[in-house]
Write a structure and sequence with these properties.
Blueprint (H helix, E strand, L loop, with lengths): L5 E4 L7 E4 L7 E4 L2 H22 L19
Antiparallel strand pairs: 1-2, 2-3
């Protein structure tokens, strides 16, 4: 299953990266490196889906679309 993950770069001297999964409300993690962030996001998605199953909540499916980022001249 593939989820869209939005990644933000932190400010210098702070946590390097943050990631959220829009399809799963409250699903957010951080990492000091992209490698750490990748591992953390997989763990947090699995954990959020497991809690949803245990609590009887609907387990969000992965969206079928994608995010496109473009840059425009100002």
């Amino acid at each position: 299953m593939k989820y869209i993950v939005e990644v933000d770069c932190g400010e210098p001297g702070q946590i390097a990266y943050g990631a959220s999964v829009p399809a799963i409300p409250g699903c957010f993690t951080t990492g000091e490196s992209l490698a750490e962030l990748r591992g953390n996001r997989i763990e947090v998605i699995d954990a959020m889906r497991e809690v949803a199953r245990e609590e009887g909540w609907a387990v969000p499916d992965a969206p079928t679309g994608f995010i496109l980022q473009i840059e425009v001249a100002v």
